[in-house]
Amino acid sequence: QVQLVESGGGLVQSGGSLRLSCAFSGRTFSTYAMGWFRRAPGKEREFVAAISWSGGSTYYTDSVKGRFTISRDNAKNTGYLQMNSLKPEDTAIYYCAANPSGPWYEPGYDYWGQGTQVTVSS
User: I need a labelling partner for 65 at 20 to 30 A (CA). Which of 10, 58, 59, 92 fits?
Assistant: First the structure.
């Protein structure tokens, strides 16, 4: 069974950086697109970024473009989200998810990690 485990969250000051990791297991990682989503306090889950099977295509929500970079290392069965220039509004629980259908097809994200908390202070 596919399992995903996020790590790397924490408390950081505004303007700081964090790198989130998503460890994938149970299937062949390269056959799944990967996405990052977040849920801020009191708000609904929001798409953040996604990456295609071998990393050739990436997608970002407008609010993180130029600040966040999604990547993957299929040899390590791990996905990443590098977050720079963090803002208080980035505070949320961040989740990684896997999708065999492609990064653009949100209903296909069937496998989810447990989430990792990112808190950005002013």
Answer: 10
For residue 44, count other CB atoms closer than 10 A to its CB.
6
Q: Is the pLDDT of residue 49 over 90?
A: yes
pLDDT computed for residue 84 by the predictor: 98
Q: In angstroms, rounded to a whole number, what is the distance separating the alpha carbons of residues 35 and 76?
A: 17
How many angstroms separate the Cα of 37 from the Cα of each of 75, 79, 122?
A: 23, 13, 22
Q: Where are the beta strands (DSSP E) in 8-99?
A: 10-13, 18-25, 33-39, 45-51, 58-60, 68-73, 78-83, 92-99
CB 33 within 8 A of CB 98: yes
Alpha-carbon span 7 to 19, nearest angstrom = 9
What tokens does 83 get? 């977050």
Query: Does the pLDDT at position 83 exceed 90?
Result: yes
- C-alpha distance from residue 68 to each of 18, 23, 35, 107, 109 (Å): 10, 19, 13, 23, 20
pLDDT at residue 16, as a whole number: 98
- Segment 82-111 shows an average pLDDT of 94
